[in-house]
Amino acid sequence: MVALPLFDVVMSSDRAERSVDVADRLVDGALADLRQIEALEEGLAPAGLTQFDRQTVALLRGMYEQWAHESRSVLDRVAQAERRFGKVKGGDTLRDALGRTLAMLSVSIDDMEASRREITEGRIVSAEEVRRELRVHAQ
Amino acid sequence: MSYGYMLSERALAGLRKMELWLQEETLDELDRLTAQQPFPGRRIGELIVRDFVRERGTNRHYVFLTLFPNAPAQTLTVSNIGWCVLPQQTDT
User: Fold this and answer.
1) B7: closest CA among A128, A39, A138, A124?
2) B51 vs A100: CB contact, 8 Å cut-off?
C-alpha cells in the first residue's frame, strides 16, 4: 500500500477533511485490490472437485495474506482518522472484508486438499449426525 | 426444492473448533442456504464460497464455508469451515 506514508503526512497536518478523504481513498484502494485477487482466483479455478492445483492455490493465498497485512495497516490509519475526525466511509466494509479473509485463511492448504479427497472417498457426515452430536454437547 | 447437506471430515473438524452457539448458527445458515437456488455466494469453478458474520458481546465472528453442489443428488457438501473473531468497532 504505497499511499500509507502520504496518509501519515496528511494526518500530521491536522486537516480533518483531507485526512478523511485520504483515508476514504485508502479504503477504496484496499477493497479494489481484494476484488482483483478474487477475480484472479475465480479465473484460475480448477475445473472440478478432483483437480487441485496446489501451486496456484499457494500463490493466491500469498496474495490474500499480503492483502490482509496491508489492510491491517490501512485500518490502523482509519482508526486514527476516526478517533480524531469522525467516521471514515467504507471503514466498516474493509473491517468485514478483513475478517472474512482471515476466516478464509484459517483453513490450511492441506485441509483444502484433504477435504476434496474425503468427499471423493465418501468420508462425509450427514447434517442429521452433526445436529445430533451438537444437541448432545449442548445438554 | 431444498437440497440436503453434509460435511467432510475436515469441515466437521473446522466446525468443532467453534463455540457451540456458533456451530448452531453455522448449521442454521446451511439450512437457509440449501433452501435457496441459485445458491448465494462466490463461485470458484464448481466450488461455492460463502461467508457470514455474527455479533456476540464485543466481538464479530466471521465464518467461512466452502461447498460443492451435486445437482443430480440434490446435495451440498461442505468441504471446509474457517472462523475468525475480531473485536467489534465502537463508534467514535
Assistant:
1) A124
2) yes
User: B44, A41: Cβ pair inside 8 Å?
Assistant: yes
Rounded CA-CA distance B2/A126 in Å is 15
Q: What are the grid coordinates assigned to B5, written together? A: 447437506
Name which of A90, A80, A79 is nearest A30 in CA terms.
Answer: A90
Q: Where are the domains of chain B?
A: 4-87
Per-residue pLDDT tens over the stretch B11-47: 999 999 999 999 999 999 999 999 988 889 999 999 9
Q: Choosing among A20, A106, A108, which should be mutated to test the B contact, i.e. which has the most B CBs within 10 A? A: A106
Please state the pTM of the whole predicted model: 0.92
What's the CA gap between B43 and B37, in Å, rounded?
14
Contacts of B68 (CB under 8 A, 6+ apart): A49, A119, B46, B47, B48, B76, B77, B79
**DSSP assignment string, B44-90:** ETTEEEEEEEEEETTEEEEEEEEEEEETTTTEEEEEEEEEEEEEPPP
Read off the pLDDT of residues A87-127 as tens digits, 9 standing for 90 and up.
Answer: 888 999 999 999 999 999 999 999 999 999 999 999 999 99
The domain made up of B4-87 has a fold known as YaeB-like fold (3.30.2310)
The domain segmentation of chain A, as residue ranges, is 4-106, 109-139
